[in-house]
Predict the 3D structure of the following.
Amino acid sequence: MKRVGSFFGDWWRLVVPYFKSEEWPIAIPLLVGAIALTFTGVGLEVLFNDWNRRFYDALQNKNEDVFWHEIGFFSVLAALFIVNAVARGIVSPYLRLRWRRWLTNHYVSHWLRGRGYYRIELQRTVDNVDQRIAEDLNYLGQYTMTLFLGFLSAVATLLSFIVILWTLSGPVHLGFIGLDITIPGYMAVAALLYAIVGSLLANLVGRRLIPLNFMRQRYEANFRFSLVRVRENAEGIALYSGEAEEGRTLRERFADVFSNGWRVLFTQVQLAFYQSGYAQIAIIFPFLVTAPRFFAGAITLGAVMQTASAFGQVQNALSFFVDNYTSLAELRAVMDRLKGLQTAVDEKPPAAIEVAPEAGRTDVAATGMTLSLPTGQALLQGVDLKLPRGSATLVTGESGSGKSTLFRALAGIWPFGQGTVRIPAGARVLFLPQKPYIPIGTLRDAIKYPDEGSAASDAEIVAALEATHLGALKGRLDETAHWSNLLSGGEQQRLAIARALVFKPDWLFMDEATASQDVANEASIYRELKARLPGTTVISIGHSPALRQWHDRVVEVQRKPGEVGRLVEGAAPA
């Protein structure tokens, strides 16, 4: 019961928000329509059950007039069944489609808000977020609507046919087994006991599917991710001749898929074997128990057929859990994965570094800031750093000393630590990492990124490309491509510099942003920045001695392995 309560509690929290959202004026009528069509289908089944009795009685009595009348009635019922099926095939899927759109927008926004996507990747709290958003949200709507409407249909069918079955089956006396007991409506009681025992056995056989389905989604996503990694890093793998190693990794990933798939298949076969046997016995069972009364002349053939039909409907309704155990297990796994994603996004470190804009401020300053690793170990402590406007500052230090972590903290994306970074209110700030992000799209949009509202003209973009020695690309501004795969590492860095020239930031932070350049190109980049962005304050992070000539301040990050680092004002530029 505790597991059942947990299941419905999680399901309620995942499902209800959509029907309370801004889409409720459409969502709720669609849901009501789907429910109404489900109940209408049950009503048609009741009419068809009664038709069974009249039709087979007409055959038994060889009453031709009644036979043809019932054929006509059946034609009307069949037409209504078709209309109902078509309507159900439109209303419910359309509701699922709108629901998936809302869920996707909601989860994507929640994932991106507050840089939750970045914290998840740093902490590795959940895996394969892309799959959870792309697939699990679809499955949530699909399984929910199928199971919810199926459950309502089962309840309505049970309430409709249990009375019919109770009336038709009559009482049975258990004297033939030595008991002086009479059971009224024995067929209804038998159907109830049959379904209860079946549900308990189905749970015993199929409960292993819940963890297996959870792991199946994980292994499938891991395998797809490994394939994407090979595609995205094709050049590096080719240069290292790493095909054998990548093939081994891919085979290992698929081995997990295969072994888990075999366990799922074996469990599903066991469950299918049980379900099939359960269903086949249910077909003949009502004929066995009504045959004595039929051959004794107590009931007609029509009554036998109506009883068999009613028993089948009641048995199917009571067997909802048995028939849908696999879907319920998959829904449970989907909900666990979505709940894990929500929890990971909502979890935030107890202390965080805040970036606070201040009106009238003329510098960027961090005071008393502490930076930690995801493990909690302190990396830098007591950081006091002032970056005056108009002063070019070089932050240097040995590899692993914490320079890039400081860069992320100043950008406001490093969640491990505490302190405040104060910046001038309204300042345009741009951070360039060592490996720039270039979105898939036109070259023009790639250079304008992330300034969606940029009013930069094509002439400005071309000038920026030429200033960064990328003039050969100026005729390809409208070309849509995966530019990260087309451009070398050095070209990507120069494109990022062109982006800075177009963006015209007040503050430009560069973390090893010219590390892939030769000395001549690096010098050319800094000359262009000084000439074209005279009002921009540049902060560079790097360890190349050649960078010193372009800066008038040097701040060194000093840290020994295993110790807490500190910032020290370095020597004057060489």
The chain has two domains: 100-346, 353-569. The radius of gyration is 35 Å.
